[in-house]
Design a protein that fits this description.
This protein is α/β, with parallel strands linked by helices. It has a single domain, classed as Formyl transferase, N-terminal domain (Rossmann fold, 3-Layer(aba) Sandwich), CATH 3.40.50.170. About 35% of the residues lie in helices and about 20% in strands. It is built from six helices and seven strands, in the order βαβαβαβαβαββα. Helix 5 crosses helix 6. The longest helix has 25 residues. It is globular, with a radius of gyration of 16 Å. The chain starts with 7 loop residues before the first strand and ends with a helix.
C-alpha cells in the first residue's frame, strides 16, 4: 500500500535510546519529506526510544525477544506482523542490537537499511571506535548501507568521515561520530526513499 501522501512508509527498529530514530522522525516533519515514520519497533520494552517516538506522535511497539528464547524465527514473525499491519515499505535499523535471520533480511531485501559507526568495510561488528584508535587511523566515521545476510556487508549508500584527534578516547570519538550519524542518516534515508517506485 502506497501512502496517500505519496511518502514512503518507514518503520524504525531500535533497542535503546533512539537518538538516530529521533533524528529520522524529526527530518520527516516537513510536508515535502519523501518519507514518514509510521512505526517504531523494539526488542526491549525498556528501550528509552519508545517513549521518545510516542512523544513525537509515532506508533511504537515493543516485542520483547526474551520470552522467545533462542527462537529468533518466531520473534521475527511477530515483528513482521507489525510491519505488515502498518503497511511499511522500508525498514531502517537504528541501534537494533539483534542479528537478523536470513528470513527477515530476505523478506526486506533491498528495502532495509542500517547505520554503522565506522567507515565500512573497515571495522564491521562491535567496538568500532576503539579499533580505529588502536589501528592509528586518522579518521573514523559512519556508514549507511543496505542490509544483507552478512554482518555490515551490504552495499554502501552514504558515508561521513570524522577526524580522529590526539587524545581521543573511544567515548569522545563515539560522541562526535554520533553527531555525524544524526546528520547523515536522515539525508541518506530521504535519498534512498526517492529512488523507490
Amino acid at each position: 500500500m502506497v501512502d496517500p501522501s505519496g511518502r514512503v512508509r518507514v518503520a524504525i527498529l531500535i533497542s535503546g535510546g533512539g537518538s538516530n530514530m529521533a533524528a529520522l522522525i524529526d527530518a520527516a516533519a516537513p510536508a515535502d519529506a519523501p518519507y514518514e515514520v509510521v512505526l517504531v519497533l523494539s526488542n526491549d520494552p525498556e528501550a528509552g526510544g519508545l517513549a521518545v517516538a510516542r512523544s513525537k506522535g509515532v506508533h511504537a511497539v515493543a516485542i520483547d525477544h526474551r520470552p522467545f528464547g533462542k527462537d529468533r524465527a518466531t520473534h521475527e514473525a511477530s515483528l513482521q506482523a507489525e510491519l505488515d499491519a502498518a503497511s511499511v515499505q522500508v525498514v531502517a535499523l537504528a541501534g537494533y542490537m539483534r542479528v537478523l535471520t536470513p528470513w527477515l533480511v530476505g523478506r526486506w531485501a533491498g528495502r532495509m537499511i542500517n547505520i554503522h559507526p565506522s567507515l565500512l568495510p573497515k571495522y564491521p561488528g562491535l567496538d568500532t571506535h576503539a579499533r580505529a584508535i588502536a589501528a592509528g587511523d586518522s579518521e573514523a566515521g559512519c556508514t549507511i548501507h543496505i542490509v544483507t545476510d552478512g554482518v555490515d556487508e551490504g552495499p554502501i549508500l552514504a558515508q561521513t568521515q570524522v577526524p580522529i584527534v590526539p587524545g581521543d578516547t573511544p567515548a569522545s570519538l563515539a560522541q562526535r561520530v554520533l553527531e555525524a550519524e544524526h546528520a547523515l542518516y536522515p539525508r541518506a534515508l530521504a535519498d534512498f526513499c526517492r529512488t523507490l517506485d
